[in-house]
Amino acid sequence: MGTEVRVPTLGESVSEATVATWFKKPGDRVAADEMLCELETDKVTVEVHAPVAGRLVEIVAPEGTTVAVSALLAQIGAAEAGEDPAPEKTHAGAEAKAGAGESKMIDVMVPALGESVSEATVSTWFKKPGDTVAQDEMLCELETDKVSVEVPAPAAGVLAEILVTEGTTVAAGSKLALISSDGQGVAAAPKAETPKKTEAAPAQEPAPKKDVEDAPSARKAMAEAGLSPDAVQGTGRDGRIMKDDVARAVSGASQAAAPTPAPQPALPRQPVPADDAAREERVKMTRLRQTIARRLKEAQNTAAMLTTYNEVDMSGVMGLRNEYKDAFEKKHGTKMGFMSFFVKACCHALKEVPEVNAEIDGTDIVYKNYVHMGVAVGTPSGLVVPVVRDADQMGFAQIEKKIAELGLRARDGKLSMAEMQGGSFTISNGGVYGSLMSSPILNPPQSGILGMHKIQERPVVEKGQIVIRPMMYLALSYDHRIVDGKGAVTFLVRVKEALEDPRRLLLDL
């Protein structure tokens, strides 16, 4: 029996994909972890790698086929007797291994990056070829769309070769470097400079490209980089262009001439006088900032977003908090803030208006019988939204402790991928920065987000009398495709009622 190649997990709420491109054909030799094909979902492109070395016996799902998670894609059989099942290695690490006799080379691989995250950028190398490393010593840091990932040394030895330079985009499971267990086979010079070889590449006449379709991820990367297929040398089957080929082309072009990439904003940038240009600074956006920009624009383009407003008298919450805050902190070891009241009030309102806690998946509405509350936190590198899971089952003290813990980890850049995924509703507190009124933007695929604002004393009328009360404006942005105006207004009114009379939360009214 051969080894089955099946569709991997595609990410949260994604159940099927389309086979976009096969990079191998039946009869081809494959190495373990070599990319076999690419799948396209409605959100991301997923690479499928060979689970073992051998020979591709059969392709069960041809290009264009829609497949579900765990569906059979292909079969890999054992290599023929006396045949090396792995294709020839071309990187210098393999050459070092072959010439090192008993020297043992240990691969440094990109670790798992988290659900729905398939690639990262090599941010910083902390070691250079020839350096001695201890087991678990940090070698480099990767930057994903959401968090930074540290890559430790899998074993003690000498860093023989760096295969991927800083700034390069790598996929989960790809090779970053080689460690020599006994110091043999160490590269004489840092191989991180290998992209410079592309400077000599134009001297070679490129082979005429066959009429083949490039990898979808490569087409996307070329579009983002502003490259034409003619400027990229494909290394895939039949000369097709792979994502790594685009990365090498971009890296080589930047090192050869360091040109300023042509900006591609919606509106062209106006010419800047020379004296002003000398006082400007151009800084590349971090992956986190790029992701924030992309997701916010996707929210505007996808959802029918609308915002409804109300105001709440915070006297009840403030009075209760002032009365019990010392006893609360003494018993629970954490301060009583306002966020726990808002989380509990939202959980209470979501039970009455469940569509605000739901999401659209294709032509289905997915109602959540739980509340995973996202709490937006500002950090030096951008806004992140850690999730308080099952907030509807937690008490005030549990909520306050969890929010404090997640907020601290967010500011220190220590949040894990799991801690920022799966939220069903979000609260954003712009009031901590002094915002009096704003319209929060949805956090897809969620259908609702509550914006809190600054508490400000204002004159209000109560029973015919003008009195001064601590007031806060509330804003609920919602996806009008799933939430009607009546539901949105009802939700906000229930939050207002619960905050103005916190006893309602205890009595579930």
Task: Describe the protein's architecture and organization.
With 509 residues, this protein is an alpha+beta fold. Among the domains are: 1-88, RNA polymerase II/Efflux pump adaptor protein, barrel-sandwich hybrid domain (OB fold (Dihydrolipoamide Acetyltransferase, E2P)); 289-507, Chloramphenicol acetyltransferase-like domain (Chloramphenicol Acetyltransferase), CATH 3.30.559.10. The chain is built from ten helices and 27 strands. It has helices spanning 92-99, 216-225, 243-257, 274-277, 287-302, 315-332, 339-352, 396-411, 485-500, 503-507, and strands spanning 3-6, 16-22, 29-30, 35-40, 45-49, 54-59, 66-68, 72-77, 105-109, 119-125, 132-133, 138-143, 148-152, 157-162, 169-171, 175-180, 305-313, 359-361, 364-366, 373-375, 377-379, 382-384, 387-388, 425-429, 448-452, 456-462, 465-479. The strands form seven sheets. Strands 17, 20, 23, 24, 25, 26 and 27 form a seven-stranded mixed β-sheet that branches. Strands 1-8-6-3 form a four-stranded antiparallel β-sheet, with no helix packed on it. A hairpin with a 2-residue loop joins strand 18 and strand 19. 32% of the residues are buried. Its cofactor is (R)-lipoate. InterPro entries: 2-oxoacid_dehydrogenase (IPR050537), 2-oxoacid_DH_actylTfrase (IPR001078), Biotin_lipoyl (IPR000089), CAT-like_dom_sf (IPR023213), E3-bd_dom_sf (IPR036625), PSBD (IPR004167), Single_hybrid_motif (IPR011053), SucB (IPR006255). Keywords: Acyltransferase, Lipoyl, Transferase, Tricarboxylic acid cycle.
